Amino acid sequence: QVQLVESGGGLVQAGGSLRLSCAASGSFFSIESMAWHRQAPGKQRELVASITRSWSTNYADSVKGRFTISRDNAKDTVILRMNSLKPEDTAVYYCNADVRHSLLLLSTNYWGQGTQVTVSS
């Protein structure tokens, strides 16, 4: 079993910054892609940013130029740096990872429990 534990959410004023961290623990062979998603009240969960094991990144148009995703493969950690935050960034942010339990198996998808980010105007 794999656990993804997020940290770093909180309350910030518009224009401010936050750093979210997600650490994977448990027994596994490797972590392939990692990502952050978010879900605002009354809205569907959406992809914010993703990063492959080889550090190729992808961002939602709404966060391009403001958010940066990175990862540390040695520590099985993914970071989301969020700058110039807007009230519309308010949501629960979820860490997501594709994990391989052996070289011969396809990856399994896991989710963290979520961390609240609130941006006040």
Condensed summary:
The protein is mostly beta strands. It is built from no helices and 11 strands. The strands form 2 sheets. Strands 2, 4, 5, 6, 9, 10 and 11 form a 7-stranded mixed beta sheet that branches. It has a 4-stranded antiparallel beta sheet with strand order 1-3-8-7, with no helix packed on it.
Outline the structure in words.
By secondary structure, this protein is mainly β. 0% of the residues lie in helices and 58% in strands. The chain is built from no helices and eleven strands. The radius of gyration is 14 Å and the shape is elongated. The N and C termini lie far apart (40 Å).
The secondary structure category is: mainly beta
Helical residue percent band: under 10%
Percent strand: over 45%
Q: Which term fits the overall shape?
A: elongated
Low-confidence stretches: none
Q: Tell me the number of strands.
A: 11
The largest β sheet comes out as: 7 strands, mixed
- What is the CA-based Rg, rounded? 14 Å
Number of distinct helices: 0
| Average pLDDT metric | 96
Strand-and-helix sequence, N→C? EEEEEEEEEEE
Q: How far apart are the termini? A: 40 Å
